[in-house]
Amino acid sequence: MIKEYKKIYKEILKKIEEYQTIVVYRHQSPDFDASGTQNGLATWLKDSFPNKEIITLGKDFYDFTPSLYPHIDEVDVSNKKFLAIIVDTGNSERIDNDSFKKADFKIKFDHHPAVEDYADIAIVNEHLASCSELVLDFVSAFEKKYPLSPLAAKYFYAGIVGDSGRFLYSDVNSHTFEMALICINKGIDINNDVYLPMYEKNISNLTVTKYILNHYTLSSKGVAYYALTQKDLDELNIRCDQAKNFMSIFSNIKGINIWVSISENTEKNEFRVSIRSKKIAIDGVATQFGGGGHAQASGAKLKTLDELPNLIAALDNLVK
Ligand code: AMP
């Protein structure tokens, strides 16, 4: 357990014990960590407090429901008195489902830079590779009284693996492995229950990869990027939120420092941007372009592709 949190963990547990209804939220466009933390915590709450009403809200994590995660609940909480626990979300605008505003009390667990203080109690630790690592640290502090089930461990493990890039990123340390070990010791089948649903691809993915390799641009400073318009997405038969799933092809290439996926979101009339880097901190530029995130993995938005040269120039400027 992270010792400095001992007191605040007790305060949070007291709040959990106090409320009959608890709603667990996470950010929009969820990833493995957001959904892993949400479901890991909700499962632990259900196991530990079977008489309480535990609800998850937001939109389903499309590609991984129900293969990895259960469907999100469809419950109207507007007339309920409830505790909201919001995980993996730095700013209130990104919380999936506005009903959190109606909560009687709000608790935030996060590992993004602390850009907004929207909760009554917050634990924010941007040095942890995943939010699952933080929330698992919290729940395992009460292991004797409220043990972690293998199902909850599976969700947390997926979150740890997802946001640490399979234990690759720079924030990975002994604590990350300690938390992974807690999950593995619960007897989860990491190959069949976690890695297979997370990483198995279809043959059609090769077509998209081929298209990206044929159409990406590499700036003189080593910023690789590809932009997919709605027409491209239709032709490739993928949704705009799936475009970033192909970025990892650029991750271990000498000479590529930063890589960017841009995809049209016609629903919001904007372009989604995902930015990754080997070492350089890109979150400042992401914030400049309407987003945010972590030093090596951030998201942003462009109104039109006319803004793309400015984004690439800003990223080029980061490269020494
Ligand atoms: P993505 O590229 O969507 O996988 O996001 C990478 C990281 O940046 C995640 O930690 C996201 O939570 C964060 N992020 C993505 N988009 C935004 C945004 N518009 N505002 C703040 N953070 C974001």
> Into which percent range does the helicity of residues fall?
25-40%
Oligomer: single chain
Strand content: 15-25%
Give the ordered list of helices and strands: HEHEEEEHHHHHEEHEEHEEH
Give the key terms.
320 residues, alpha/beta, inorganic pyrophosphatase (n-terminal core), Diaminopimelate Epimerase, Chain A, domain 1, 2 domains, 6-stranded mixed beta sheet, 5-stranded parallel beta sheet, 10 helices, 11 strands, binds adenosine monophosphate
Concise account of the structure shown:
With 320 residues, the chain is α/β, with parallel strands linked by helices. It is 35% helix and 18% strand.
Layout: helices, strands, pairs:
Blueprint: H1 6-18, E1 21-25, H2 32-48, E2 53-56, E3 83-87, E4 105-110, E5 121-124, H3 131-140, H4 150-163, H5 174-184, H6 190-199, H7 203-215, E6 217-218, E7 223-228, H8 230-236, E8 258-265, E9 270-277, H9 283-288, E10 292-293, E11 297-302, H10 308-318
Parallel strand pairs: 1-2, 1-3, 3-4, 4-5, 7-8
Antiparallel strand pairs: 6-7, 8-9, 9-11, 10-11
The structure holds adenosine monophosphate (AMP).
How is this structure best described in words?
- With about 325 residues, this protein is an alpha/beta fold.
- The chain folds into 2 domains: about 5-200, inorganic pyrophosphatase (n-terminal core), CATH 3.90.1640.10; about 205-315, Diaminopimelate Epimerase, Chain A, domain 1 (Roll), CATH 3.10.310.
- About 35% of the residues lie in helices and about 20% in strands.
- It has 10 helices and 11 strands.
- The strands form 2 sheets. The protein has a 6-stranded mixed β-sheet with strand order 6-7-8-9-11-10. It has a 5-stranded parallel β-sheet with strand order 2-1-3-4-5.
- About 40% of the residues are buried.
